[in-house]
Amino acid sequence: MIEHRPFITFLAHFTLIIGIAIVAFPIWVTFVAATHDAVRMTQVPLPMLPGDQFFINLKKALFEGIGGAGGIPVGMMMLNSLVVALMIATGKIIISLLSAFAIVYFKFPFRMAFFWMIFLTLMLPVEVRILPTFEVVADLGMLNSFWGLSIPLIASATATFMFRQVFLTVPDEMLEAARVDGAGPMRFFFDILLPLSRTNIAALFVILFIYGWNQYLWPLLITTDASMFTVVMGIKQMLEAAEQAPEWHLIMMTALLAMLPPVVVVLTMQRMFVKGLTETDK
Amino acid sequence: MAEIVLDGVRKSYGKVEVIKGVDWKINDGEFVVIVGPSGCGKSTLLRMIAGLEAITAGEISIGDTVVNDLEPSERNIAMVFQNYALYPHMSVYQNMAYGLKIKKIPKDEIDKRVQRAAEILELEEYLDRPPRQLSGGQRQRVAMGRAIVRQPAVFLFDEPLSNLDAKLRVQMRLEIKKLQEDLGITSVYVTHDQVEAMTLGHRLAVLNGGVVEQLGTPIEVYEKPATVFVAGFIGSPSMNLLEARLDEAGAFVVLAGGAKIALPSPLGEYGGRDVTFGVRPEHLEDKGKGANNLQLSLNVRVVEQLGADTLVHGTLGENGAELVARLDGIRTLSQGHVLELNMAAKSIHLFDGKTGRRLG
Fold it and tell me: What is the pLDDT of residues B262-304, one digit of tens each?
């Protein structure tokens, strides 16, 4: 815009600043709360400026654990979350890459039927099928395990769609050139398709990692063993410490820690992420 | 080094037959160009030779091997695609080496072949670059390099120059011709471009509606088109084709407008039949220029000045059939002017009105 209208500019910035404040304020409160000790957090008014207990709280939360959450250190929960998020993200990517590859490049009976079946799963997220899924996972003895936490979340229609679209943009001649060069289907997949979908895979990884990290309901349902708690549901468990007042400073520290990995993933993969969602040149 | 033999090759998609039986033999080291309008099946035919399309019936052999059921990579061919189909994430070197790597050819041999191809195609300084940093002509060369390093028995070209601008096209056309002559590899080249068709190949196959209308040297095809279709398709501007009838004795052609043209050699056996009369615009000359006895008078409608020559569009008589004449040099003719034209006896063509086949 090459307009110079001070008032409009002011209004625009003002609106943006308000918006940022609304988003950032709770994070600020979380951060401040994580820097005070338990006593200060029970006094009114709540502090608005950081205290000096940050590293003490950090150490305590990460390594010692908090009552209510089974005394499991947050570090352990984060590790669980990390494993689950990685399993979900990579699992989804592998499954949907392969299914998209099959649907785009192979002719087999009921190809479109399978495609629409995958499509239908869009309408069946875990929350909808939670009881039957629980039953299946329980029968398979996967309660309180990483497999139980991740497998039911792995089947993914959205990612299959995305890769299908990506593969459709790869010109047919590329496949033909590869065939003339003597590349079989899997060779074509690994040597040509995978490198060409690199940025899309990265973009999807970011989305899916955060999706997996933020899972709440499913882990809450199938983990009873505290050593399998993920951090997002762990926060909830901490609030339910029956025998004592919630340790707000540690809970807030945990919340802060739980926010961190998605931020790191987004920041480090941001460039590829944007490229993967916008780039069309093949 | 190999000959390609097509024997009754057919291709159908469901009920639609796109290649309706092609038989031909391409000699070892020969350069054959397949030309035809879009949708005539020329690319399909090429892709069938390449093994990218299954054939419905018939037999294709390359060298002494029937290749019907062989994968493209097993047919000892190399193909250059219209949009180059380079692998965008690989460097020029890797693009050329990829097929060899799959064949498990030793590294130093691969390196030797790629360097040699790069030398031939003047790509040495670009070997480390990805294709997107190259110009269209360079990409086309990489695609050719990828074909050369395979040292195939057969080169297949699928309209390789149609994505290039006019100037590059002329340059690359010469390079391809030279390359094919130097390497002596049997080549099949698909194009819809007149000039490429005429200049590149030893022989020309004109394809229409899945049928080879004519297979011959470019000059044969130009001088003696076998069918009305070939006559109209080869040559630019295309041949004038006029409805006509032979008189009973087969000595005269009577054009729709009533003009009578005496035939140099009477076609008695076709007397009284409907025919198509053809003459190329470039074979029509101003009266008096040559000592020719076959004459037409043209009512000028539109004149197009091309610099080197002039295209005169007009009608025979007042409202007769439309005709184009190509006269050399710059002419200023106004609309309505009546131009007396003559033509050499050997430059007229007659085709059967029903079958479209050449007569005489």
Answer: 887 777 777 788 899 999 999 888 766 555 567 788 888 999 9
Domains of chain A, earliest start first: 34-278 (1.10.3720.10)
CB contact under 8 A, A180 and B87: no
Query: For the domain B241-352, what is the CATH code?
Result: 2.40.50.140
Cα separation, B113 vs A21, in Å, equals 64
Q: Which residues pair with A206 in a beta bridge?
A: none
A170 close contact with B: CB closer than 8 A:
no
Is the CB of A182 less than 8 angstroms away from the CB of B89? no
Four-CA torsion B92, B94, B98, B101, nearest 10 degrees: 140
- Which residue of A180, A187, A195 is in closest CB contact with B72? A180
Please give the backbone phi and psi of residue B357, each rounded to the nearest 5 degrees, phi first: -80, 155
| Residues of B in Cβ contact (< 8 Å) with A173 | 81-85
Nearest to B102 among A181, A196, A282 (CB): A181
- Which one of B85, B89, B98 has the shortest CB-CB distance to A173? B85
DSSP code for A61 = I
User: What's the pTM value of the predicted model, to 2 decimals?
Assistant: 0.79
Q: Which fold has domain B4-232?
A: Rossmann fold (3.40.50)
Q: Percent of chain A beyond pLDDT 70?
A: 93
Measured between CA atoms, the residue of chain B closest to residue A174 is: B85
CA neighbours closer than 13 Å in the CB half-sphere of residue B350 = 25
Which of B48, B70, B77, B79 should one mutate to test binding to chain A, selecting the residue with the greatest count of A CBs within 10 A? Answer: B79
What value of ipTM does the predicted structure carry? Answer: 0.81
Q: What is the C-alpha separation between A28 and A25, in angstroms, rounded?
A: 5
Starting at the edge strand found earlier in the chain, the sheet holding B211-216 runs B77-80, B154-158, B186-191, B31-35, B203-208, B211-216
Q: How would you classify the pairing of strands B203-208 and B57-62?
A: unpaired
